[in-house]
Amino acid sequence: MSPAEQSQRSRSTRNGWLLSAPALTLLFLAASGPLLIVLVYSFLTPGQYGNVVWDFSLDGWIGILFTRDIFDGTMNLADAHLTIFWRSVKLSLMTTALTFALGFPTAWFIATRPPAQRAMWLFLITIPFWTNLLIRTFAINEVIRNEGLMNTVLTGLGLISEPIRLINTDTAVFIGMAYVYLPLMVLPLFAAIDRFDMKLLEAGYDLYASRMQVLRHVIVPIVKPGIVAGSILVFVPSLGAYVTPRVLGGGKNMMIGNFIELQFGQGRNWPLGAALSMALLLIVMAALLVYVRASTKGSNPHG
Amino acid sequence: MTQKVAITAQNVVKAFGQGAAAVRALDDVSVDIATGEFFTLLGPSGCGKTTLLRLIAGFEMPTAGKILIDGADVTEMPPNRRPVNTVFQSYALFPHLTVAENIGFGLKMQGRPKAEVAATTTEMLALVKLDAMADRKISQLSGGQQQRVALARALAPRPKVLLLDEPLSALDLKLRKKMQVELKRLQTETGITFVFVTHDQEEALTMSDRIAVMSAGKIQQIGAPREIYTRPVNRFVASFVGETNFLPVTATPQGARLSTGDVIAAEGEGSVLIVRPEQLRLGPAGVGAGLAAKVTGVVYFGTDIHVNLSLADGTALTARVPSPVDGGADFATGQDVAVTFQPGAARLIRE
């Protein structure tokens, strides 16, 4: 490379950084600022009216897993908190699994349509995004509640005599989250399947692979980046879901998101809320690490 | 013929689309391909050659007719249970697997023991001279190397028949020539029946034991390369395989009478006389026998020159003569020449 070319290249690199500087600054401040505040608050003492007192304390972090007995002051494992954590992880995993089970055939169907039709199908998939999440969740509520559409129709047809009690159960939250996050699974899967060379299916069959073997040894490994992306896009927001468990799960079937909100609201325990938020962040990061590690290992059989 | 038959197509019809809009890609095609043969399906795009190959592979079901492999009816059998393997035009190699894993894929799917898969893979890598590339990813290979992986992958399970769908069309000329020799060597070494699809007549002539020339969903002629070239049965075969002069004639007891009135001895019967350009001889006008013609153009090709001629009544004709040693033109536009046919060169075909 000549010196002239080198200086031109370094100039264009510098220009690139300069152009993206405003956005990068904004992103950095907006991401790190609030996070920093939350981190600091998690080590402070709760104030009487829901603010914080600037006294260092680990009570917020201890409060994630333990509760102090109000009579003798002993520390006990907080079963209620663990139940909430477990419910969050369980429902998020189930949601990811269900959206994958529904999303994969859907994405495959769209990717195998003639190019002219694909845009329409993708458009239909994104239509739910046009409506506010809260309104969509209330719509689900309207369908599945005891006197809602589903139960009215089924009772009217004489198929059931008692309404199916779904609302305010984990199942309701599960259905709601699967509905809300399904497009987030379909879109990355579609992008991966769209790039998949369908000739490889014929190559697989030609080389004595059955349909299941083609799925396992050809399709899944090749579209894996789409599966990973879709799973992350569904799992992460599911874990922190707030609106759906609030509307469909009622007050009892809380998930981490609702529990955190409770600490900043009625609970008046900001340090605990902040510590819970940080814990959620850590859980998400740990889950992502495990997932990405596992999925990259699978693609390299020599590793 | 006492040879064993590897593949039989019986009155195979393949129609795409429904009702009146249906297109017959194959129209009542019957052919027997012998075991151990290098058989080529030759024709222009859309002639049905690839469709026939896909029917043998099992990727398509015939609308009517039967496909037999080694005497067994496989018409309804899915591709993964047929003892044939395909080398795809685009290679269709698995991008997530290494070279060795691609080659071992078929054996692995058949559930062969690991040791056997490894041994055969090593053997195939040596056969296509890719030993050093075993652990490379497909994306790290050149087009020619990918081509060889595709071949090795299809040969590894020792199929009864290897189907090749225009496998050389993506390669540049030099590499293509090299691979033609390579393919022929592989076929001789393995003794596997090859069914090769191409639109390149030179490729077909140089490699095949027998060629089926196809057009419009039908087989026009089946024969050895020499037979196809020297005794084409109709105008399509004569014009698709090599270059040919077509002259309208009327049959007389003495021979075929040209539009100029000259009479020429010709084999066969029909109203069109065909003669290959390289089987014409050009001599000085007025000396000895020969058709009187005028040179209308000369095109230099290196190894030979093409001389465009016009007979007395204006009928156009092309002769191909060896290049003069000194590189200068032997013929000039406007020159009068006498055209003679090599003995046996002229043949008659039906229109």
TrEMBL record, chain A:
<keyword id="KW-0813">Transport</keyword>
<dbReference type="InterPro" id="IPR000515">
    <property type="entry name" value="MetI-like"/>
</dbReference>
<feature type="domain" description="ABC transmembrane type-1">
    <location>
        <begin position="85"/>
        <end position="291"/>
    </location>
</feature>
<dbReference type="GO" id="GO:0055085">
    <property type="term" value="P:transmembrane transport"/>
</dbReference>
<protein>
    <submittedName>
        <fullName>ABC transporter permease</fullName>
    </submittedName>
</protein>
<dbReference type="InterPro" id="IPR035906">
    <property type="entry name" value="MetI-like_sf"/>
</dbReference>
<keyword id="KW-0472">Membrane</keyword>
<comment type="similarity">
    <text>Belongs to the binding-protein-dependent transport system permease family. CysTW subfamily.</text>
</comment>
<dbReference type="GO" id="GO:0005886">
    <property type="term" value="C:plasma membrane"/>
</dbReference>
<feature type="transmembrane region" description="Helical">
    <location>
        <begin position="172"/>
        <end position="193"/>
    </location>
</feature>
<keyword id="KW-1003">Cell membrane</keyword>
<feature type="transmembrane region" description="Helical">
    <location>
        <begin position="272"/>
        <end position="292"/>
    </location>
</feature>
<keyword id="KW-0812">Transmembrane</keyword>
<keyword id="KW-1133">Transmembrane helix</keyword>
<feature type="transmembrane region" description="Helical">
    <location>
        <begin position="21"/>
        <end position="44"/>
    </location>
</feature>
<feature type="transmembrane region" description="Helical">
    <location>
        <begin position="119"/>
        <end position="140"/>
    </location>
</feature>
<feature type="transmembrane region" description="Helical">
    <location>
        <begin position="214"/>
        <end position="236"/>
    </location>
</feature>
<feature type="transmembrane region" description="Helical">
    <location>
        <begin position="91"/>
        <end position="112"/>
    </location>
</feature>
